[in-house]
Amino acid sequence: MRDDYDIFCALADRLGFGDAFSEDKDEAAWLHSFLAASEITDVDRFKTTGIYWGCDQERVGLADFVADPQAYPLSTPSGKVELASAAYAQTGYPAVPTARIMCPDEQYPLRLITPKARYRIHSQNSNLPWFREREAQVLWIHPHDAHSRGIRDGHDVLLTSPQGRVTIAARVTEDIMPA
Questions:
Q1: Considering just the CA atoms, what is the radius of gyration of the chain in Å?
Q2: Residue 41's Cα: distance from chain center in Å?
Q3: What does the alpha-carbon distance between residue 55 and residue 39 come to, in Å, rounded to a whole number?
Q4: Which pLDDT tens digit goes with each residue over 114-172?
Q5: Whole-model pTM above 0.85?
Q6: Positive or negative, the Cα torsion across 171, 172, 175, 179?
Q7: How far apart are CA 150 and CA 57, in angstroms?
């Protein structure tokens, strides 16, 4: 199996700039040069764990502001955290943000909720069996909604919307709200 670097080198060769792209370094030489130029002091430990906590990993969001709000104000009109914003209200929305609920649609009565997957970012890693085994790509549907539509656990269902359609296996579960 070829890795990404080998593939990119082959493409660069075909395009006529292979030597400029690779700089006559193989993958190991590139990794060595990246590690040598980094803050990593224990390369062997890093190679074993694959983890490096840089100094800035200890940072806390808004730390200066929290320590001294007068000396380090935020870039809001009041210099503080604002839950109600007159500037936001000028856009035509309420000063205190609220949920904007879509109007019901008789043709598409259900809402598709797409939470972040634990093992993937969008479709990344979906091609790897290790990730697929840990979290199946399924549609969660409440038993009430499934029953009224003749959907059973594990069966393929066709989802449609104005944006398109997709077929996916259903997981009938009370772990999601009914419509």
A1: 26
A2: 30
A3: 9
A4: 777 777 777 777 778 887 788 788 899 999 999 999 999 999 999 998 889 999 999 99
A5: no
A6: positive
A7: 50
